[in-house]
Amino acid sequence: MSYSRTDADKARVLARILREQGLRVFLDDMAVDDFASITASISEALARSKTLLALYSAEYPRRRACQWELTYAYLAGQREGDPRRRVLVINPERAAHHVHPVELRDAKHWIWPAVPDALQRLAAQVAAHVAAIDSPLGAAGQLTGTQEPRPIPWLPAPARTGSARFTNRLAEQWRIHTALVRHRAPLVAEPGSGSGRTAQLRGMPGIGKSVLAQEYAVRFGSAYPGGVFWFDLHTAQGSPTTAMDAYAQQVAVVCHALDVDDTTDAPLSRLLSRLAVHLGERGTPCLWVVDGLPDGLQWEELQLLRGPHLLASTLLTTRSFRYGSFAEAIDLPPLSDADGFRLVTSHRTPAGDVEKASALALVHDTGGHPQALDILSDLAETTGFVELRNRLHATGTDILASPGSPHSEHRSVKPRHGTPLASALLTRPLSGNRPVDDVLRLLALAAPAPLTQTVLENAIASVDPYDPWEAGSAVSEAVTTLLGSGALLPDPTTPRSWTVHALLARAVRRHDVDTARQEDLRRVLLHTLAAPIAQEPRDGAPHRAEPAPFPPLGLPHSGPSPVERSAAFDLQVELVTRVGVQPLDPEAGSLREALTSLHSLFATTREVLHRVAGESPPPLVLPRIALDLTNQHLRPFLALWHAALRQHEDTCPPDRSAIEHERLWSRAADMRTHLAALREPLTSTAEDLAALCGIDLLHPPRHEMP
Fold this sequence. Notes:
Elements: E1 2-3, H1 8-20, H2 40-48, E2 52-55, H3 64-80, E3 87-91, H4 102-106, E4 110-111, H5 116-131, E5 154-155, H6 170-180, E6 198-202, H7 209-219, E7 228-232, H8 240-257, H9 268-282, E8 286-293, H10 299-304, E9 312-318, E10 328-331, H11 337-344, H12 353-365, H13 370-379, H14 385-393, H15 421-425, H16 435-446, E11 451-452, H17 453-461, H18 471-485, E12 488-490, E13 497-500, H19 502-511, H20 515-530, H21 562-576, H22 591-615, H23 622-649, H24 658-663, H25 668-693
Parallel strand pairs: 1-2, 2-3, 3-4, 5-7, 6-9, 6-10, 7-8, 8-9
Antiparallel strand pairs: 11-13, 12-13
């Protein structure tokens, strides 16, 4: 009997009644520690038992021991042709969506009886089912005599054999299997879960996608007697065209091996069609794996990657998070503390509590990243875990930057083609001020805390060389690119919010070529997070903040420094002389010149922030005022009206002046209204600056004549 410790009382009651029916029941009463291996006694008991009776509560799939026991019995039944014969399910919950794989959910399972008589009837039904089975689980699916079981074919050669240091991931293997065979039980499939046959395994570089797919193919091979077809596209990362060429070459190798089509340079569609006929004639299910799918493939190309026949279940592995609609997605998480601890200590047993704590801290430091922990486990052979953790965080040479160790051939996740881990995480050096680099820097600086789209836009708009109306599109394009590379982790609690893995954040901080740019962004981000965040406008109009009472500032007890006072005065001078604080007559002035004038405040604000950050000691008040000015007031206004006015200006005929054309604009009155509404918050900002520098340019003191 397999059960979660939270259901121990139910399990004991049921075991007693089953024994009264004359059954021999193995019930493990010793809790299996999360950091321990499955005990030998449980393995032996499973091999001697005829069936596994799973008390499948909501907690059951969360227990590693339960998953191991279920996998053993399921695969034994799979070798016989029907896993449901060897696994019986009692579901004490009202729903069944927690039951994996889908075949067990589709099978007729019992609910937990509400009265004692029903429990007796359930025990009698279990006894009747077991009586019809002759052999134990250990012998299930084995051939008699000297005949060896037929191996599952694997093409193109060589066959993958999994890894001796693979860290289980049984829950993820069940999710893969459920996704691939969901079509076999359509009546119990959850709405929106997909129709089966195709799944994509997603995750960042080095998280273990390929080795998990290999382990699934090896462990669940009996479910695919037609063989495993494995196509490796890792050499084509970043090049969709090269990827499709590599795929076509490997498909041609398979066709040649099966004597299906020997035509030289045959088109991919022809090869797949010939394979479809061949698989249909064989009539047995097979597994079609495309490993290392690059970002940027078109929909038509993706369709060619599916198994060519409905008997083929297709499993893709990819870093990209942009193929969500193509196949059911399984996002591969970092290793759990238990599995990570087991991996990092695989070459050295911690000596004492301090060493154990340091080993577990390494799991947390690397965010449970398998490849990083594998490198550390090799290094731990010659040094203790306390010293190893100090080396991990020391400045200078990065101990994770080396492509491998002398034991790399035994590593569970080897760097592809000897690529160092840092290079795998950062596919190209960070340099300059491209939006995708700056957004990645900001997320790395904030990690593990997520940043919203609004915070990213406000920070980007506050640094050169971005114009305020460019911030939104620049951030959106950068996020799309980073999602395609697998760098981003969407925050499940907040829409349009992301973070990055701890190891990627570490790589950005340590290997950024432009450290000065990183420091500029760090300062801007801190000021942005400290300032109130602008609310998203609902009607397309720029956000209008409520004016604060004068003076609104809680100044430091020591007062602002002379540099900060001087900078506040300079910014106040620029602000009070601009359109926005100074009214624009209804029929006078140019709207384009008004936008240009307000936009020039961004350059002044950035110069002021750099000046006070470099020359004034904290705490500082001016950055909060400056970022509030640019992000809450100026940027929303400029982003809305720059694009709208530019669209109108593009329609100006050659024989019409720009001013005349502007006055004919249908939205001119609306823009002037919004410009007038901007005066109140800008005036309030000018008053804040006046309070900081001690000189009020808007309300100068009146001197009476003698």
